[in-house]
Request: fold
Amino acid sequence: MSRLIVAFESEATRQRVCELFAASSFPVRASCRTGAEVIRAAHFMGGAVVVCGVKLADCTADQLYSDLEGLACMLVVAKPEQMEMCENPHIFRLPLPVNRHDLTASVRMLEQLAEMEQARPKQNAADQELIRQAKIYLQEVRLMTEEEAHRYLQKRSMTTRRKMAEVAAEIIDRQRG
Reply:
């Protein structure tokens, strides 16, 4: 089932994009003008793929992605010169002009990505806290960046065939002991 949200500040642009999807038999579940509307719709649907412009009536695409807190995959469609306003590396981009095939293929790929993310087991809050503390320890004591600390935990987790949280707990225990 499609969980597609189209969000552009301009009514005419929203209408054109929705018509493009309709012509491809791709159902749009919500058409929004503001980030607040997108957030409500995504929460109601339990997740979504959002196709939007760089800027909405009340926020930028970067702010919206942050506010969605992992609830949606996002595809920004805009003129190439506007794309630099979108800085978040987790937001997918498609420069204008765009044809119907590229747009629908991109959304299908994002829907598959969202399904895979949803199927992946989530870490609970306690595990996340252990990992966060281990990263802080590695950053302070071993002078790693946050990314280096994360990769260290990942690699150690894979080589020992244990969860990242278990590796993090071991590091924290050694620090305290």
